[in-house]
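pasting for the record
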Amino acid sequence: MKKEEAKFEELKNKFPHLDKFAEKKNMQKNLIALLSPEFFEKYKLPDDSYLKEFDDPNALIEKISDLSTSISLGSQKKKFKEDFNTIYIPKIGNSKVCISILDLKIKEQNYIKVIIDPTKSYAEFLASFLNSDLGLTIRSKCMKGYIPFLNKTSVSNMHVLIPSLKQQKKILNFLLIVNKKKNDLANVSNRLDELKAELISKPSSLEEVSKEYAEIAKDVEPSKKILKKSFTEWIDTIPFPLAVILREYLSLKEGDGHKFRVLLKFFEATVAFFNTIYFGAYRESKKDFEEIKNKLKNDKLNFKHLTFGIWVQTFAVFCKYTRTLLNEDRKTCERIFCDEDLILPTILSDKKLVNIFSEALRIRNQEEAHGSYIDLETAENMNNNLYEMVESFREIIGDLWTRNELVQLDTSEAYSENEYVHHFSSLMGSHTTFIKKSKKMEHGLFKNNLYLINSKPTKPIKLEKFLQISTPPKKLKNACYFYNKVNRQGKVHFISYHYSNTIEGNFPEQLLALIDELT
């Protein structure tokens, strides 16, 4: 490392503006050839592209160095002293920024202590900002090194969005009200769970439990209009293959015994869709894709006749592999998922999603596919359980689809080797007439393929051909079809989860080739 430092200093003496020059793409390869990637990362200029996301005329863009009176690094030898109006920023990872030593979740030496000038900002507000999605992006962008971390300089140069102290106080007061309401609802939820457990263990308590439930429900019963509006608005923000199924669900009347079956279709389509994203992402990394294929083969999954169960098993394999990659090689994970913030792989690999899909599969297999006749009361109970699972799914996914858009390319115009204007259909929401959009990109795309486009200028993920958007024979303008099996004649068979039709035919050879690779 000392030889490399000497070489870099020698270069800096010859080229005084080397630091800025190193940011240019055509020079990075030359510098990396001279120095190790680790050393190059050390000298790379901070990435301040996040400043483009600051869009509030009533707030100022401030550097943390201008807001603080002191910035100090944590140390194994010397413990932090608690100070007024102070935040503690983790050097690595996405742990929360804290405002008290008592709240620290990792060792003190892994934090940077920043004492905030009380005439410029409240520590609580700044901590909340840095814990938001935008704050996490800023922290990630400001990290340096082959293993990304924050240091005193990068924190000093970090920019944040700060409204007036008066506005900060109003915001903090509102957050207190919201958090109190959340805590109240959590307490109610816990009590309802206790009542359910009490009733199961003591059936004779039904009357007593019913009375307490009535009292609780009277105080917290939300407006059905608000609930439906919230659910409908959410549907119009998620990808078409999923949204169109939930639109069908909303079209059914209350008490319709078919409603729970639509939610089962939603989960089956969702796990298939997520696997399609996974396959598309990992196909770009030969080494990682080979390892995943071997794991799928070891599980003896038959991709020539796909079932809900096979999709769930496949998803579990992808999730586990992705979680390992997030822990051990974040740079590779960032490249595979074309997501410098790692939000897409973090959410898609959440263990809770595997649990939800597994439970939906259990319900389908035990209660629906292999069960006896289902009466209306049982159907209603299953519908309630599955709807709760949809709400849990919604909570896990968060605002993922505000950052990632499913599109189908229509046409492209190339202006140079690295400059294209792509015209595509936005496959978001439940409407079957798709909105047309155009976007300038550095990456070439291919007509009629499905892509997942990040809101930031990164390379899109090309989805595998397990999913097709086609015009059905009648009724709907557009319908979504998922790969189901290869028939005896060697033709690929697709099914729809929201339209009573199937399609069959000679689809691209790469799909059959992929199926052969996996089986």
